[in-house]
Specification:
The chain has 4 helices and 6 strands. It has 143 residues and is an alpha+beta fold.
Length: 143
Amino acid sequence: MSRPHVVTALSVMWLLTSCGAAPPGPEQILLDRVNCARCTMLISSDAHAAQSQAHGRATRFFDDIGCLAADADASANDANRYVKLVSGAWSTVDSAWFARSATASTPMDYGILAFASADEARAADRDGKAHEWPSIVALVRAR
């Protein structure tokens, strides 16, 4: 393939993969400037925050992991979902492990904490269990 054809092919591939794609990775939350997409409270801390990036829509921010779990975006097939881990790092909901704490105070009192490992989640969970995202969604919706 000649050089102009390679450049054209690469340009077309780049356009096709970038058009309408959700942003890669979590976005910065502008504290005290954006409201939770679920409960509409102003997000003043991102310690228990979450966000969802669905195809063709602006990123939706949440002040509490439970707000994301209760939202329609919690199980949308075309959404990238991120949660703030207790460590302060961001993780996808599929990589994180969750605990339902008996003592943690979260903005909407769901008490859900996110961890990088199952062992950390199990140690923080009120029942000694490490939960995966589908379990958290089911528990929140049953609440």
